[in-house]
Amino acid sequence: MLKLILLSALTILVLTEDLVLQPRYLEDVPQTRVVGGEVAKPHSWPWQVSIQVLSDTRWTHDCGGTLIRAGWVMTAAHCVDSSQTRRVVLGAHNLLTENGTEQFMRIKDVSKHPQWRNDVYKGYDIALIELSTEAKLNSAVKLASLPPPNMVLPNKHPCYITGWGRTSFGGSPSSYLKEALLPIVDYNTCSEKWGAKVNPTMVCAGRGRNSGCHGDSGGPLNCQVGGRYYIHGVTSFGSKCSTVAQPSVFTRVSAYIGWINQIINRKGAWS
To answer: Catalytic amino acids?
Structure first.
C-alpha cells in the first residue's frame, strides 16, 4: 500500500501467484489468495504501521512505516514531504474494518534526514515520526529490531516486503496487509540495472513479479538473520510495481543507525 517520482516511488505489494516461503514464526495455515498476491496472517508483522492522510473528513492510507520505539516510527522521507494532516495506525490488518487491536496515534514531530533533497535517486530517503503518546505494546503491536550499523546482507538472502499498497501498477490498493518474498540483490547487480540512481546506502531486493507498489513506500523490508527478523530496508522506489526489469530499492537502514540514535536520544528515547 504518494507521490510519483519518475519511476514510481514505492509505497505495498505486487505479489506473484507462486507460493512463497513463509516466515518461520507464522503458523502453517491456509492463506487467503488475492489477485496478484497473498495476505499476511493478521499481526504476523506487528511492527508494521499505516501512515494515513486526512482528506476532507476521511482518513486514507498513504504510506507504510515501522514502529522502532514505543514513541517512534521509521518511514521514508518522501512520505512526509507535504504539509498534509497525518496520523499513524498501529495494530491494523484490514484497513476497512476495525477489530479492536488498532491504536490511532497523533504525530508530535517529524525528522527527515538533513541531506534529503526531495529526490529518491539522491538517497537519504528516511524519516522518523515522533508520536504524541507511547504505543501500548501487545501481541498486535510490537517493536521492530534494527540491524547492526553498516550490516550488508549477501546476495539472494530472503526478505519480505509488507504493506497495504496497490496490488498491480495502476490497480487498487489492498485493504488487507500483504507480504511478498523479495531476495536481496547485491549492489553490483543492482547498479547494472539502475545505474547511477542507486548508491551503497541503498539495498535492492526482488527478482521477478514480486515488488512493492504505490502505498508501500516507507514500509519495512523484513529480513531474518539468526532466527530473528530485522528491518534492513525502508521502501523507497521501483519500476512500475515490478522487479522483472529492475529490483525494488530500499533505504539501507544499517547505514543510518547512528543518525536514528542521534535523533531519538536528542529528543528523549522512549523504550
So the answer is: 78, 125, 217
